[in-house]
Amino acid sequence: MKQRELKRLKKKMKVKGNHVIFSLVFLVLGYMMAFSYHLTQGEEEKPALSGKQWERDLELRNQLVELEEKNRALQKELNEEQENVLDIEKELSQEAQVYFNLAEDAEKYRMHLGKVKVKGSGVEVTLADGDYNPEEENINNYIVHEHHVFKVINELYISGASAVAINGQRLSHSSYIVCNGPVIEVDGYQHPAPFVITAIGDAGVLSSALNLTGGVKDTLVDENIQFTLEKKGEIIMEPLLGS
């Protein structure tokens, strides 16, 4: 008895479940039909473009295409102009370097010509007459002559000295030195011994050049000249006065 009722109950539940499934299916189909109808009605309600509107849209589209082509052409022209500007900037940079080099060269020439005041490190060389030897018959064998001074000055210039002075008198490209008895004349001005030669430049290079074995120092010492060399941290030379 209980088994019959249980079977009957299961059958009823199965029938109800089928009813629920069919109801959901019909509900979804109805919704889809309603949505499709609404969409169709909406498209039918949209007004069709007139001939004038279509021509206007086409004209605007053509204008847009034309403007885009002009924009691309202008962009290309801008890129070319920017390249030209870069080329000009490079040329100006090179010209600026050339002018800078010319200014440096002009400054060096002014220094060599004695036209400007100069200051820097360098060396100081002192040349003094040798000790008197009574056995020496010729007094000229132990005094400083102009050729001794020339040897020092030439070596200093060769070694990179930018400015040279004798007893404080600045030398120029046209300076001359002559021996006049116990004194020497520099551009007409007399200077007695000892002769102090100052030079502005790399002190290490200048001193090394003068102290080379068999070089200027050794030659002067062999000729009874008292030779002293000192490095200077700062040497100041005033410009030459014009005539």
UniProtKB/TrEMBL annotation:
InterPro entries: DUF881. The keyword Transmembrane helix applies. It comes from the Bacteria. The chain crosses the membrane at residues 20-39. Keywords: Coiled coil, Membrane, Transmembrane, Transmembrane helix. The keyword Metal-binding does not apply. Residues 57-98 form a coiled coil. It holds the Pfam family DUF881. PANTHER family: UPF0749 PROTEIN RV1825, UPF0749 PROTEIN YLXX. Belongs to the UPF0749 family. This is DUF881 domain-containing protein. It comes from Sporosarcina globispora. The lineage of its organism: Bacteria, Bacillati, Bacillota, Bacilli, Bacillales.
